[in-house]
Specification:
The protein has about 325 residues and is an alpha/beta fold. It has three domains: about 30 residues; about 140 residues, no CATH class; about 150 residues, no CATH class. The chain has eleven helices and six strands. The strands form two sheets. A four-stranded mixed beta sheet has the order 1-6-5-4, with helices on one face. Strands 2-3 form a two-stranded parallel ribbon. A hairpin with a 2-residue loop joins β4 and β5.
């Protein structure tokens, strides 16, 4: 009887985990990281850039020697508690998908001011050396999603205003939040971390569209690989969960590498008469990253003043990990 009861409890527990996992996939669908079998092409008009010593200072994660000896977890908990009960996520989601130059800045700033206490706490937490989760993070996942949306909106607003250093600071805050969430020893917060990193990474594409924005090649190159490491919590998961999680983390690392490749193309164009290279190996200004999963060069084709950079689908992914960038150079 006791054995049957134990099996029943175990079955219920597995069902709860499955439900939570499905909810997480729903979250990823909302954030466009797992939405369709084939992702739509990303069309980017790039502004060429030239390497400068100034760009060496940019970091997308805090440096270890800059961190203070403090615990980030209570600050994150306070940030969640500081969020107003009524949050118009529909409006925020609409704005974070609006081209930065078309944002209604007065309205956006009014919203961001409303959430300033939470955003400041996130910034403080990013500078902490430790993050020891002592409370039930799973109960707060919706709030963490909302904070990621706010950070995304703030980045887009700062880019629109030409406040690039501030936008990089906010990207760093978002990436630090994701890295700290991934330290929680269960798989679900790790999936939230992947989704948050994808949301923040998408904003880096906006730098390539701006004529005076810094080039983030080196900053992207300095990021840890893999960015989110979920190998420890995955050791106790079922095979189907492991496969889906690995697909998501691999796609994230490939996305970051593709962004680094795009920044390398901007550097090439900046010193070659505003032209794309014929082949990727023509880029000698910096090292072109390979696909971190296949260990092979990304697919690249140039046709005149346009080019296509592709992160090709891997076997068994049904196209969910493919990304196609259709690139043009601003004349």
């Amino acid at each position: 009887m006791a054995i049957l009861q134990h099996k029943k409890i175990a079955s219920i527990f597995r069902m709860i985990k499955l439900i939570v996992f499905c909810l997480m996939i729903s979250f990823l669908i909302i954030s466009n990281t797992y939405a369709r079998r084939t992702q739509p092409p990303v069309q980017l008009t790039l502004h060429p850039s030239k390497a400068t010593d100034t760009e060496q200072k940019y970091q997308l994660l805090p440096k270890a020697d800059e961190l203070i000896d403090a615990d980030a977890a209570p600050l994150y908990e306070n940030a969640v508690a500081s969020l107003p009960a009524e949050l118009n996520t529909d409006q925020i989601n609409k704005w974070r998908k609006t081209p930065p130059d078309q944002l209604p800045q007065k309205q956006v700033q009014a919203i961001l001011q409303q959430f300033k206490p939470s955003l400041q706490l996130l910034e403080q937490a990013a500078k902490c050396k430790q993050c020891d989760w002592t409370y039930e993070v799973l109960q707060k996942l919706t709030q963490y999603r909302n904070m990621a949306f706010l950070l995304t909106l703030q980045i887009r607003s700062q880019i629109a205003q030409g406040r690039y250093d501030n936008a990089i600071d906010t990207i760093r805050t978002g990436f630090a939040l994701a890295k700290n969430l991934s330290k929680e020893p269960t798989i679900i917060p790790g999936l939230v971390a992947v989704a948050i990193t994808e949301l923040i990474s998408k904003q880096i594409e906006e730098f390539a569209r701006k004529p005076d924005a810094p080039n983030l090649y080196q900053a992207l190159s300095d990021l840890p690989k893999p960015f989110i490491d979920l190998s420890d919590p995955l050791e106790i998961e079922e095979a189907d969960v492991v496969k889906n999680v690995q697909l998501l983390t691999n796609r994230l690392d490939r996305h970051i590498a593709a962004l680094q490749c795009i920044e390398a193309l901007r550097l090439y164009a900046g010193s070659h008469d505003n032209k794309f290279p014929e082949i990727l190996s023509d880029v000698t200004e910096v090292k072109i990253p390979d696909d971190p999963v296949t260990k092979k060069p990304f697919s690249y084709n140039r046709a005149g003043s346009e080019a296509v950079l592709e992160v090709q689908a891997t076997e068994g992914s049904e196209g969910k990990d493919a990304i196609r960038y259709e690139l043009k150079l601003k004349e």
